Automatic annotation (TrEMBL):
Positions that bind L-glutamine: D95
Domain Glutamine amidotransferase type-2, first and last residues per copy: 2-208
Enzyme class: ligase
Record-linked NCBIfam families: asn_synth_AEB (TIGR01536)
Keywords: Amino-acid biosynthesis, Asparagine biosynthesis, ATP-binding, Glutamine amidotransferase, Ligase, Nucleotide-binding
Gene Ontology MF annotations: asparagine synthase (glutamine-hydrolyzing) activity; ATP binding
Region forming the signal peptide: none
Lineage summary: Archaea, Methanobacteriati, Methanobacteriota, Stenosarchaea group, Methanomicrobia
Active site: C2
Family, per entry: Belongs to the asparagine synthetase family.
InterPro entries: Asn_synth_AEB (IPR006426), Asn_synthase (IPR001962), ASN_synthetase/amidase (IPR051786), AsnB_N (IPR033738), GATase_2_dom (IPR017932), Ntn_hydrolases_N (IPR029055), Rossmann-like_a/b/a_fold (IPR014729)
Protein name: Putative asparagine synthetase [glutamine-hydrolyzing]
């Protein structure tokens, strides 16, 4: 696991070194650089595989192809054996080394052979050709921008602050999307002019311009018709294999354990394939959302070495700025903050951690999916219900609360209807496909990568192995939502591994008692920020209207709370990224409010 960056259009190793310095947290073990005429790239390394020999950049035999990359290639040993049989020579035990040789052998089709998570920068010096690749599901991030005619790319957007010509400006359209979808799907980011390379895409920069193309997409074809038992057996086989290959590590390994179905299934399978007890970690708040009871049950059942992290809500507030700094977005989901604290504690014990992200989107785990399976209700009505549940603020709400600096151009209902109508399959399939392709990489996976890597932890997500995803998305909807049971097929696939209480209990994650936090410990902080002249002068929001949100009659209580939280987050994001000089930046909550 690493962080990477580079610049095309100038040979400035000093700039690339400064970019790498801004992500030292992603790779505290090593750094490396490569320079060519009009090009330079670098990396920071978190050593996990091939610790002694995995220094990057890594090249082919004659040095004409150079690679830095962030991620893990789980099938690298099989790829290496095949490439060696074709005459390629290897000099390290690191997974990175298969990449330049795959490029030699297969050209731009080389990512199709990789099984894992990755963000790759490959430089072909003979053709002065830059190739950037992001993994199929968007587990690893990759950003790009143009500054003063030079093309820059990086694992984190904050790395662009190293260029003196980069002027951070908030992207108003991104804020509009955040208030529409709770995240920023697509290529946009919170920074104007900074873009994400989409999952399953490749960017080739050659001859003075970048060209982006898709190399992978979710297949629309359905799995062969089978009895329920056959579907269950195949899912179990693929999930077990996915967990097993993700135990590959030369450093200590563990798992986030919420006590819910997804993380519990991962821990159970890890225990089956591990020689030693699995290190597991659970967070709790002393409120009704406390997960300790169920996590203990799973840990005891699996013989895990369990760790409990108790968080007091008054301590949580201090971690807001640093969590925003690492996530690089307003935290629409407050769970990112306890995840930051949990990861900090977890680092004392392990460097690699598995977690259950992606299962809800693959197997219809969220409550709002439920009515989509009701075939007796007209599809247009099912979509309307889903939009009502999913979209936090209507166009009218946004017109009321946005200021002059943000002009909402998104008709959320119309756009959502168009998105859910595209493609093959029934309405549930199309919704799950949208969530896996758009919402998951821009929201949950962004949080998982950025927050875990803030503490030099590699997070692995077995449910998002692309072979497992392809099979899961080919399954008929009735095996996902069956008789009102969410994740029906997953529960069947793991029911022999876990206590029945875990199989039957409702979905839970790293939930945070947001009501208590906002009404007690955080109340004065939010009021101080939203009542400030700085918030009003910025012009993002109608300050008077936002200040009345907690007493609003025009919004439901839940929507008022969400809008208040997100307005607070956008202002805090601006104070962290826009208002401060990078050299004198503070992440002290007391100094920022």
């Amino acid at each position: 696991m690493c962080g990477i960056c580079g610049v095309l259009g100038m040979n400035d190793e000093g700039l690339v070194r400064r970019m790498c310095d801004l992500i030292r947290h992603r790779g505290p073990d090593d750094d490396g650089y490569y320079s060519d005429e009009n090009f330079c790239m670098g990396m920071r390394r978190l050593a996990i595989i091939g610790i002694a020999s995995g220094h990057q950049p890594i090249r082919n035999e004659d040095g004409t192809i150079q690679v830095v990359y962030n991620g893990e290639i789980y099938n690298f040993l099989a790829l290496r054996a095949d490439l060696e049989a074709k005459g390629h020579r290897f000099y390290t035990s690191c997974d990175t080394e298969v990449i330049p040789h795959l490029y030699e052998e297969y050209g731009d089709a080389f990512p199709e052979h990789l099984r894992g998570m990755f963000a790759i920068s490959l430089w072909d010096s003979s053709k002065k050709r830059l190739v950037l690749v992001r993994d199929r599901l968007g587990i690893k991030p990759l950003y790009y921008t143009t500054i003063d005619g030079a093309f820059l790319f990086a694992s984190e957007a904050k790395q662009f602050f190293a260029h003196e010509g980069f002027k951070p400006e908030m992207n108003a359209e991104a804020v509009d999307r955040m208030f529409t979808y709770r995240t920023i799907p697509g290529t946009d980011t919170m920074f104007r002019g900074v873009y994400r390379l989409l999952p399953g895409h490749m960017l080739v920069h050659e001859g003075g311009k970048p060209v982006i193309a898709r190399y992978w997409d979710m297949p629309d074809s359905e799995a062969p018709v089978a009895v329920e038992g056959a579907y269950v057996a195949r899912l179990r086989e693929l999930l077990e294999e996915s967990v097993r290959i993700r135990l590959m590590s030369e450093v200590p390994l563990g798992a986030y354990l919420s006590g819910g179905l997804d993380s519990s299934a991962i821990v159970a399978m890890m225990s089956r394939h591990s020689d030693e007890p699995v290190n597991t970690f659970t967070v709790g708040y002393g409120e009704s959302s406390d997960e300790f009871e169920y996590a203990r049950m799973v840990a005891d059942h699996c013989g895990a070495n369990h760790h409990e992290i108790k968080i007091s809500m008054d301590r949580m507030t201090q971690f807001i700025p640093v969590s925003i700094w690492h996530a690089e977005v307003p935290l629409s989901d407050p769970a990112a903050i306890p995840f930051y604290v949990t990861s900090r504690e977890l680092k004392k014990y392990v460097t690699v951690a598995l977690l259950g992200e992606g299962s809800d989107e693959l197997y219809a785990g969220y409550d709002e999916y439920h009515p989509l399976s009701y075939s007796f209700i007209p599809e247009w009505l099912r979509k309307k219900y889903f939009e009502f549940r999913r979209i936090p603020l209507t166009a009218r709400d946004k017109r009321r609360y946005f200021g002059a600096a943000i002009k909402s151009g998104i008709d959320a209902s119309r756009e959502m209807d168009s998105l859910l109508s595209a493609g093959e399959g029934d309405i549930l399939y199309r919704t799950l496909r949208f969530d896996v392709k758009q919402m998951l990489p821009s929201h949950q996976l962004l949080r998982v990568d950025k927050i875990s890597m803030a503490h030099s932890i590699e997070a692995r997500v077995p449910f998002l192995d692309h072979k497992l995803v392809e099979y899961s998305m080919s399954l008929p909807s009735w095996v996902k939502l069956n008789g009102g049971v969410h994740k029906y097929i997953l529960k069947k696939a793991v029911e022999d591994l876990l206590p029945s209480t875990i199989i039957r209990r409702p979905k839970k994650g790293f939930n945070i008692p947001i009501d208590t936090w906002m009404e007690k410990d955080l109340k004065e902080v939010i009021a101080s920020v939203l009542d400030s002249s700085r918030f009003e002068r910025r012009g993002y929001f109608n300050a008077d209207a936002v200040r009345q949100l907690s007493r609003s009659q025009g919004l439901s209580r839940g929507k008022a709370k969400y809008a208040t939280w997100l307005a607070f987050m956008v202002e805090m994001w601006s104070r962290v990224f826009v208002d401060q000089d990078v050299k004198s930046r503070t992440l002290d909550i007391a100094r920022l409010v």
